[in-house]
UniProtKB/TrEMBL annotation:
Coiled coil: none annotated. It comes from the Bacteria. This is NAD-dependent epimerase/dehydratase domain-containing protein. SUPFAM superfamilies: NAD(P)-binding Rossmann-fold domains. Pfam families: Epimerase (PF01370). Residues 82-223 form the NAD-dependent epimerase/dehydratase domain. Gene3D superfamilies: NAD(P)-binding Rossmann-like Domain. PANTHER family: BIFUNCTIONAL POLYMYXIN RESISTANCE PROTEIN ARNA, UDP-D-APIOSE_UDP-D-XYLOSE SYNTHASE 2.
Length: 289
């Protein structure tokens, strides 16, 4: 970790909201394997996954915490209100203040960017092509407003995460069926994305928790140092690949510049290795079960 960023170790536990969601379950599974990780306190709306709590409820029963990792959110689906992502961000900031956290980590997405041939940096102007990215961009704006309105409250960082291994469409497809179908583009290749294994995402959270919040960027791209082909992941999992012609508007490659993240939490090229992504996914699932 960059010595300018370091604040030592987190001075208390990390509260994980969204503990029963896809990413939350994966993080809970890998957390014991991460060196130097502070205690993780899962927070969920129903019993069985840690402390039971939901926005609007009293916070008296929650422990004091150094960091709130807000991995809750509304994802696309029939009847789902994506605008609630901004509301949940505000609830996370209020929760952070209530438990004495110095930092709140918010789960945003690379979908706030317009995909294109160039590597995407945090300085690029967001141009979400769909409603999910637009809702997450509004969430980021809500976070910024909360921080500006409460200068003595917790700091915040929004993670523009690429693809979490085990929590997106390719891994969903490999869970449902033996074969997977991928888009084939005019150059004969399939999609590439910046993936990140659950244990590597946990390392990023731990590194952020140990950093000086005042020195953290408000926005942080998160993913492996290079893109990984979806075909390579499927084959590493032993899954046959079927092809279809890529529909109009499909993105061949979405590449994130993660240099800011690597200055805080160094990851090497192995983080993008298909076998690593698959084995980490399977280990997280087994541990969470």
């Amino acid at each position: 970790m960059d010595s300018k960023m370091s604040g030592g170790e987190a001075s208390g536990p990390i509260l994980l909201t969204g503990a029963t969601g896809k990413v939350g379950r994966l993080l809970r599974g890998v957390w014991p394997t991460v060196s130097g990780a502070p205690a993780l306190v899962p927070v969920a709306r129903r019993p069985g996954a840690g402390v039971v709590w939901e926005p609007g409820a009293p916070t008296d029963g929650l422990p004091r915490a150094a960091v709130v990792a807000a991995f809750w959110g509304v994802v696309p689906g029939p009847g789902r209100d994506l605008s609630r992502n901004a509301e949940l961000a505000g609830a996370a900031m209020a929760l952070g203040r209530a438990v004495g956290a110095r930092l709140v980590i918010h789960c945003s997405t690379s979908a706030v960017y317009a995909p294109g041939p160039e590597t995407l940096t945090e300085e690029d102007t967001p141009a979400p092509p769909g409603p999910y990215g637009a809702a997450k961009l509004e969430m980021e704006a809500a976070v910024a407003r909360h921080v500006a309105a409460d200068p003595q409250g917790p700091r915040a960082v929004c993670l523009r995460i690429g693809n979490v291994a085990g929590a997106e469409s390719l891994f969903d497809a490999m869970t449902r069926a033996h074969e997977v179908t991928l888009d084939r583009f005019a150059d004969g290749a399939g999609p590439e994305r910046n993936y990140i294994a659950p244990s590597d995402l946990a390392r990023v959270v731990v590194a952020l928790a140990a950093a000086d919040p005042a020195r953290l960027p408000a926005i942080l791209n998160v993913g492996a140092p290079r893109t990984t082909a979806m075909e390579a992941i499927a084959r590493a999992a032993g899954r046959p690949v079927l092809w279809r012609v890529a529909p109009e508007g499909a993105a061949r490659r979405v590449a994130l510049d993660v240099s800011r993240m690597l200055a805080i939490c160094p990851l090497d090229d192995r983080a993008a290795d298909p076998a690593h992504l698959v084995s980490d996914w399977r280990a997280a699932l087994a541990a969470a079960a």
